[in-house]
Write a structure and sequence with these properties.
Structural class: alpha/beta
CATH architecture of one domain: 3-Layer(aba) Sandwich
Number of strands: 8
Helix content: 40-55%
Bound molecules: adenosine monophosphate
Oligomer: single chain
Shape: globular
Strand content: 5-15%
Radius of gyration: 16 Å
Length: 214
């Protein structure tokens, strides 16, 4: 069993790689972004609280996020371990996570701003099953329709250029300090996420097999 964290700017491909590793190796992705989007869609109290922050590209407050993660970990089977995707995003969240479980490795999926803006502005997501597409790099067979479940594809509100720029700023200011935090603990592994997600997933799976699993 391993617990791994994916850190990286929005658009680095964290969600795509986490879902590939789930399919291939059985690790359970824990994406706070996905949990929040589901809550917004269902109109729950959490969703109502989170929506404005998300639409502005800002971070949802730490106590809300930490509560979500605790609940998710308590109610989901993780025999193989979790891949934390998009959590932690602040030092306070990282410190809270330390109290909850042991972390075996932290992958920094880094990509240039030009690459992430191009990726995010072309990203489309299935409304029904959450599968991720790109209008140029990974288009669905039929425009606007999910290959897997036939659901309708949409553009996330926060994938518009102005919000993308805000999310990148928030990443630089609030999340990037985690890089040193984990490097000092000897846990950080650098991944060049300017490449295709398939290559990143392969490199990460190999690393986990060689260094982290037992
Ligand atoms: P993501 O899908 O990971 O890019 O997350 C989408 C949005 O959800 C972010 O821009 C934040 O508004 C919010 N969010 C997701 N994860 C966190 C987190 N760990 N801390 C604070 N806000 C988060």
């Amino acid at each position: 069993m391993i617990n791994a964290i994916f850190i990286g700017p929005p658009g680095a491909g964290k969600g795509t790689v986490a879902s590939m590793l789930h399919d291939e190796c059985g690790y359970v992705p824990l994406s706070t972004g996905d949990i929040l989007r589901r809550a917004v869609k269902e109109g729950t109290e959490l969703g109502i609280k989170a929506k404005d922050y998300m639409d502005r590209g800002e971070l949802v407050p730490d106590d809300v996020i930490i509560g979500i993660v605790k609940e998710y970990m308590a109610t989901n089977d993780s025999a193989k371990g979790f891949i934390f995707d998009g959590f932690p995003r602040t030092i306070a969240q990282a410190e809270a996570l330390q109290e909850m479980t042991q972390i075996d490795c932290v992958f920094l999926l880094d990509a240039s701003e030009d690459v992430v803006i191009e990726r995010l502005s072309g990203r489309r997501v299935c409304k029904k099953c959450g599968a991720i597409y790109h209008i140029k790099n990974h288009p669905p067979k039929v425009e606007g329709v999910c290959d897997i479940c036939g659901g309708e594809l949409y553009q996330r509100d926060d994938d518009r250029e102005q919000t993308i720029r805000m999310r990148l700023r928030v990443y630089r200011e609030q999340t990037a300090p985690l890089i040193d935090f984990y490097r000092e603990k000897g846990l950080l592994v650098d991944i060049d996420a300017n490449r295709d997600a398939v290559e990143n997933a392969r490199e990460i799976a190999d690393y986990i097999k060689r260094h982290c699993s037992n």
